[in-house]
């Protein structure tokens, strides 16, 4: 005879008072509600879109975009597809995000440390900086910088330094590298990258030797020397075999309007957006850095001082490494903010991804485009988070 | 927890998932089914004209920041050429030109606005184009022939757009203007550097400060912004137009009767000028001129009853808003932003117009009202 299932002969706590049952029931009901609400929401949107004949779909991606993109750093023609135009637009945002995050972090750490300086004037100036820039709306700051740039003289009356550096209200132009043939560039870059890898390994090994034996081994110098020597040698070899990987191009005024061509030009729009984002975000980062440093116990600093470390060495070897653990997570969130805030670029004449997306809605379904760029922003933010979390694991406590 | 309970819970989960699927399937069917059945029979729905009469006002998507066409005056009223077209429609269907609601829309949202059908009309310096015609709605008569041009500082000493080689040009993004500029630059190998701005105000500001050598938009816009610049005499609009920009009101797809009503109102405005009738001399008794009598509903008909508007709608329109010339001069011409309108200007009436002193040889024309 088969055994009767136990739940049929159950004689324990009544079902309606059984804690586990109640918990599970609550979970199931809430899961049901969430799924139902989400489904209802999307079905509703779908119906509304269909009712109002609002176009939706992604077939437009292969169509020609047929619209210029104001500023782009990878090749783009208006006969390119929407798909590629979105990539170009994303690269514009990515450029601002990367440069902005790097500069904002450096400036933020600097201001955060300055905020804790023993020098009264320095710390108060840092305080004013932080409180001013994080309490004024970003768009207002961007427009402020936009008008500041416009105060600069126009291009023909602009400042020229040594015939190489042009500063005017259209932007800043300086000599810049122009890549040669793809083969030459690729060969050289690969060689230098390999040298850099070797240099990093040498640096690590020599550092270990220095700590273990106490003999001065010049790790940094050796590392840099390796990269430099390989870089120069491979440059010469590549130049002799084919052509120089990069040639320097100087900016030069052209035509009756004297617009600058050649070299590298950081246009006013990008400049304004970067200055605004970097200053705004650095004010927040400064506070994060200050909080991180202040969270390191006083005893640590006193012990470092007792060992005879100077103020700078204490900060570099004792305080800051410990503070980093607390700094990184909120710092990531500031990186995300900077990336997302770059969507204000259109206001000051920089064509960021949002800006291009708005233009695209003229000729393609708006809902689809915005779903796409939301996904791209999400991917960018998640990448920042990933990088930050990996770094956080690297600097975090190990084994304690 | 023992095995029995887990079994029970698993079964409950499965059941609820199945129920959910069923419900959502039912929901989606419910949602789409009525739309499918009601779509073909427009008559069963209330027509837009009836809806407007019931509502008591006409809803127009327009602009509040383009001088001349649609802006807000010192008294806080929406005024301008486009606003007057909206008022004319309100006067025709409701007998009251002030029965309007203006919804300001940005250039980038006007397509979605008219597609949604939430507004009765889009009058916002909209350029008619085939793809907009296909997607957005039905375009009424072109009420202003515009074209893209350039404004430049007089001190540059340039008289032709072809001299703009290597120039930097400020342009508003999100419009065909940007594309036209690029095509123009490519066609003549001009190497023009375009600086694009989200807002036209920012583009004009950048031009004023010399960040760009020229500013490009439609001619009407150039004159409007020129008049707003300090020392507007030191700027000049170059003669060339590099694009065709016929500006016309748009009405939502799906109600042909309403499209016809808007078109008739536009025609009334145009023919009133042609017949020499202004807001000051609208006839309310037979004049003996058959065409004028027909226009103002004093004798004969040109389809007012079929469309459901008052036979004397034209009287209300012209009395409260004026004829084409009056509307033009109030906002765009001498009393407005100073856009010239002489003989052979594109926005003069076609030369067949019977009026004596109105400018002729232009392209403003509508199908006869009969």
Observed structural traits:
heterodimer, A: 400 residues, alpha+beta, MetI-like fold, 4-stranded antiparallel sheet, two-stranded antiparallel ribbon, 11 helices, 64% helix, globular, B: 370 residues, alpha/beta, D-Maltodextrin-Binding Protein, domain 2, 2 domains, 5-stranded mixed sheet, 3-stranded parallel sheet, 13 helices, 40% helix
Fold and architecture overview:
The complex is a heterodimer of chains A (400) and B (370). Chain A has 400 residues and is an alpha+beta fold. In chain A, 64% of the residues lie in helices and 7% in strands. Chain A has 11 helices and 8 strands. In chain A, strand 2 (165-168) and strand 3 (171-174) form a beta hairpin. Chain A is globular. Chain B has 2 domains: 48-145 and 247-331, Periplasmic binding protein-like II (D-Maltodextrin-Binding Protein, domain 2); 148-243, D-Maltodextrin-Binding Protein, domain 2 (3-Layer(aba) Sandwich). Chain B has helices at 3-38, 48-55, 81-94, 110-116, 130-135, 176-187, 200-208, 219-228, 256-274, 290-295, 304-307, 313-320, 324-331; strands at residues 58-62, 65-66, 70-72, 78-79, 100-104, 121-122, 137-139, 144-146, 148-153, 168-172, 193-197, 214-218, 235-237, 245-247, 250-252. In chain B, the strands form 5 sheets. In chain B, strands 11-10-12-9-13 form a 5-stranded mixed beta sheet, with helices on both faces. In chain B, helix 3 (81-94) packs across helix 9 and helix 3 (81-94) packs antiparallel against helix 12 (313-320). The chains are: A alpha+beta (400), B alpha/beta (370).
Strand order of the largest sheet of chain B: 11-10-12-9-13
How is the largest sheet of chain A built, in terms of strand order? 1-2-3-8
Strand content of chain B: 5-15%
What's the assembly state of these chains? heterodimer
Main beta sheet of chain A: 4 strands, antiparallel
**Gyration radius over CA of chain A:** 29 Å
What is the gist of this entry?
The complex is a heterodimer of chains A (400) and B (370). Chain A is of the alpha+beta class and 400 residues long.
């Amino acid at each position: 005879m088969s055994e009767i299932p136990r739940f049929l002969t159950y004689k324990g706590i009544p079902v309606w008072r059984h804690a586990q049952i109640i918990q599970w029931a609550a979970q199931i009901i809430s899961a049901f509600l969430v799924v139902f609400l989400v489904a209802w929401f999307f079905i509703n949107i779908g119906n509304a879109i269909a009712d109002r004949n609002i176009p939706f779909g992604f077939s437009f991606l292969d169509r020609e975009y047929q619209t210029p993109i104001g500023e782009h750093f990878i090749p783009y023609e208006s006969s390119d597809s929407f798909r590629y135009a979105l990539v170009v637009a994303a690269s514009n945002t990515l450029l601002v995000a990367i440069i902005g995050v790097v500069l904002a972090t450096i400036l933020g750490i600097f201001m955060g440390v300055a905020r804790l300086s023993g020098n009264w004037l320095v710390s108060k100036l840092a305080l004013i900086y932080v409180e001013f820039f994080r309490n004024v709306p970003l768009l207002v700051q961007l427009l402020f910088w936009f008008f500041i740039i416009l105060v600069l003289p126009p291009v023909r009356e602009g400042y020229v330094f040594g015939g190489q550096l042009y500063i005017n209200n259209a932007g800043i132009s300086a000599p810049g590298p122009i890549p040669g043939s793809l083969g030459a560039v690729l060969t050289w870059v690969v060689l230098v990258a390999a040298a850099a890898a070797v240099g990093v390994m040498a640096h690590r090994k020599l550092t270990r030797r220095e700590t273990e034996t106490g003999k001065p081994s010049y790790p940094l110098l050796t590392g840099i020397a390796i990269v430099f020597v390989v870089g120069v040698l491979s440059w010469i070899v590549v130049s002799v075999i084919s052509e120089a990987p990069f040639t320097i191009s100087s900016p030069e005024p052209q035509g009756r309007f004297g617009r600058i061509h050649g070299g590298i030009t950081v246009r006013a729009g990008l400049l304004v957006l970067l200055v605004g984002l970097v200053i705004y975000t650095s004010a927040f980062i400064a506070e994060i850095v200050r909080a991180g440093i202040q969270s390191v116990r006083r005893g640590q600093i006193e012990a470092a001082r007792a060992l005879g470390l100077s103020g700078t060495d204490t900060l570099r070897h004792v305080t800051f490494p410990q503070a980093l653990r607390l700094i990184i997570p909120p710092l990531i969130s500031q990186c995300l903010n900077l990336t997302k805030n770059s969507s204000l670029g259109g206001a000051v004449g920089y064509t960021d991804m949002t800006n291009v997306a708005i233009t695209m809605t003229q000729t393609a379904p708006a809902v689809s485009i915005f779903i796409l760029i939301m996904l791209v922003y999400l991917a960018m933010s998640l990448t920042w988070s990933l990088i930050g979390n990996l770094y956080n694991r690297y600097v975090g406590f190990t084994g304690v | 927890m023992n095995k029995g309970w887990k079994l029970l819970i698993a079964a409950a989960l499965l059941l609820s998932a199945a129920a959910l699927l069923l419900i959502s399937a039912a929901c989606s069917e419910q949602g789409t089914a009525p739309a499918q059945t009601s779509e073909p029979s427009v008559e069963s729905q209330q027509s837009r004209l009836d809806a407007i009469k019931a509502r008591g006002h006409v809803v127009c998507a327009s602009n509040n920041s383009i001088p001349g066409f649609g802006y807000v005056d010192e008294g806080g009223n929406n005024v301008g050429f486009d606003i007057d077209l909206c008022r004319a429609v309100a006067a025709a269907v409701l007998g009251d030109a002030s029965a309007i609601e203006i919804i300001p829309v940005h250039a980038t949202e006007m397509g979605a606005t008219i597609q949604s059908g939430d507004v009765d009309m889009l009058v916002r310096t909209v350029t008619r184009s085939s793809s907009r015609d296909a997607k957005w709605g039905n375009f009424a008569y072109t009420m202003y022939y515009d074209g893209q041009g350039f404004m430049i500082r007089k001190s540059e000493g340039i008289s032709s757009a072809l001299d703009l080689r290597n120039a930097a040009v400020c342009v508003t993004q999100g419009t065909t203007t940007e594309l036209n500029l690029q095509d123009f630059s490519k066609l003549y190998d001009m190497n023009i550097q375009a600086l694009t701005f989200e807002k036209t105000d920012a583009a004009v500001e950048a031009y004023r400060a010399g960040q760009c050598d020229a500013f490009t938009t439609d001619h009407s816009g150039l004159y409007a912004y020129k008049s707003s610049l300090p020392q507007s005499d030191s700027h000049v609009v170059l003669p060339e137009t590099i694009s065709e920009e016929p500006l016309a009101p748009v009405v939502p797809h799906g109600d042909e009767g309403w499209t016809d009503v808007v078109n008739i109102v536009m025609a009334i405005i145009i023919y009133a000028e042609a017949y020499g009738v202004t807001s000051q001399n609208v006839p309310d008794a037979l004049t003996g001129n058959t065409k004028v009598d027909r226009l103002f509903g004093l004798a004969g008909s040109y389809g007012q009853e079929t469309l459901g508007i008052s036979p004397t709608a034209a009287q209300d329109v012209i009395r409260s808003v004026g004829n084409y010339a009056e509307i033009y001069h109030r906002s765009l011409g001498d009393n407005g932003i100073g856009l010239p309108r002489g003989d052979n200007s594109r926005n003069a009436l076609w030369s067949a117009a019977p009026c004596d002193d109105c400018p002729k040889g232009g392209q403003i024309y509508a199908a006869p009202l009969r």
